[in-house]
Q: What sequence folds into this?
């Protein structure tokens, strides 16, 4: 039976039937799952509808807001049931839905777990949506510009919206390992990501060669069948150890780049530092500081943790999505940095095991770790790690000190990023 006709959206609205699939987003620095995109799968009479045709038709017929209300109501119900330590969830919203009060109320229920994806396709005025974007960010939510490279006004939207993530359209990624023109575009976007302080994500990665090409060109996150297929939440298959090891091994070998070249970006972070100082919300300021450290040093991962009664809790991480606390009774380098009020650096050869706490055990015992206290008196720590020995030489340590001091100046007391009940 053919449901791909001009009536399929109206028929869907009469009796909504759908399923959700979850596709992992992978850090191309650590191989860790940092989030999932929630993919809506509309159905009719038990049969799947053509997804792209369905949402294109909904937008063209002016029915996208009604469809998004139905789907986001269910998403807002689902995400809180997935546990406090659930990673970030990327949620697609039609441009027509951004200003709808009912859509905004549903998004408000997602809190810090939500990343709002706004497609480059379609007509929308980012400046007109500033109020919505700012309100969303004030709740801890982040913003992604989706399908970048599929339209004609992407750079304008990139500048006006100031997204936290930019998702390169799959047509730029597909075959990028053999197409020099695509590589040049991706490389340029990688440089923009460093200067403007967003994370660059490659969609549609289907081969190892496409993945490593993206890594070489400055893409920090990946999504695609090679890294993980969309699945129902209860059927999600853990990322294979083999792919994680490919990422870690390739990343470690590629990091033989001269240190001066890696730190060259430090001089080009004026725009990002301006965003740190101009941001009115604590959430945005913390994100930009962590992103500056991540973009400048290219580490395995970066984390900012805040002290609570029971231990140190990650409030923001890049390179992984670990949200569990490091309890006070647990041995940890982060505790040592916090309690000792001084930067802690541990570097080791591959055969020298050092217990650094559960967070580092999760990350396969990174070989070079540096953690600095933040706050006056300290309220938390900022740290980064590398999957190779003796990576923390003086220039990198100075960058960490600079940003931890900046965070202390901006936040002598804990930032209002998450309430204690939310972590």
A:
């Amino acid at each position: 039976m053919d449901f791909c006709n001009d009536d399929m959206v109206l028929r869907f609205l009469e009796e909504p039937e759908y399923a959700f699939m979850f596709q992992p987003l992978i850090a191309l620095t650590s191989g860790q799952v940092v989030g999932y995109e929630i993919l809506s799968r509309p159905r009719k009479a038990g049969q799947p509808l053509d997804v792209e045709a369905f949402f294109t038709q909904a937008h063209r017929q002016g029915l996208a807001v009604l469809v998004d209300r139905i789907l986001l109501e269910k998403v807002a119900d689902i995400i809180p049931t997935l546990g406090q330590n659930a990673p970030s969830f990327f949620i697609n919203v039609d441009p027509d839905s951004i200003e709808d009060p009912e859509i905004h109320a549903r998004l408000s229920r997602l809190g810090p777990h939500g990343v709002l994806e706004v497609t480059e396709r379609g007509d929308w005025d980012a400046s007109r949506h500033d109020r919505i974007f700012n309100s969303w960010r004030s709740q801890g939510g982040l913003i992604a510009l989706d399908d970048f490279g599929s339209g004609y006004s992407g750079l304008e939207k990139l500048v006006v919206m100031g997204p936290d993530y930019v998702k390169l359209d799959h047509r730029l990624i597909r075959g990028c390992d053999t197409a020099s023109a695509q590589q040049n575009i991706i490389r340029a976007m990688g440089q923009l990501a460093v200067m403007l302080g967003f994370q660059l994500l490659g969609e549609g990665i289907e081969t190892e060669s496409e993945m490593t090409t993206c890594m070489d060109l400055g893409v920090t996150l990946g999504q695609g069948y090679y890294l993980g297929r969309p699945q129902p939440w209860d059927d999600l298959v853990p990322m294979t150890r083999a792919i994680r090891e490919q990422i870690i091994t390739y990343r470690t070998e590629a990091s033989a780049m001269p240190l001066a070249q890696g730190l060259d970006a430090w001089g080009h972070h004026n725009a990002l530092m301006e965003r740190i100082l101009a941001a009115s919300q604590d959430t945005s300021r913390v994100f930009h500081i962590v992103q500056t450290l991540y973009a400048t040093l290219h580490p395995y991962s970066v984390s900012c943790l805040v002290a609570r009664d029971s231990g140190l809790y990650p409030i923001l991480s890049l390179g992984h999505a670990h949200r569990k606390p490091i309890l006070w009774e647990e041995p940890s380098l982060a505790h040592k940095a916090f309690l000792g009020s001084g930067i802690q650096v541990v570097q080791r050869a591959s055969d020298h095991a050092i217990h650094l706490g559960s967070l580092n055990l999760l990350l396969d015992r990174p070989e070079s770790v540096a953690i600095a206290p933040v706050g006056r008196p300290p309220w938390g720590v900022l740290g980064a790690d590398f999957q190779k020995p003796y990576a923390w030489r003086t220039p990198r340590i100075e960058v960490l000190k600079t940003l931890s001091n900046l965070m202390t100046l901006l936040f002598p007391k804990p930032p209002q990023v998450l309430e204690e009940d939310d972590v």
Q: What stands out?
A: The radius of gyration is 21 Å. The domain at 291-422 is CATH 3.30.450.40 (Beta-Lactamase). The mean pLDDT is 81.
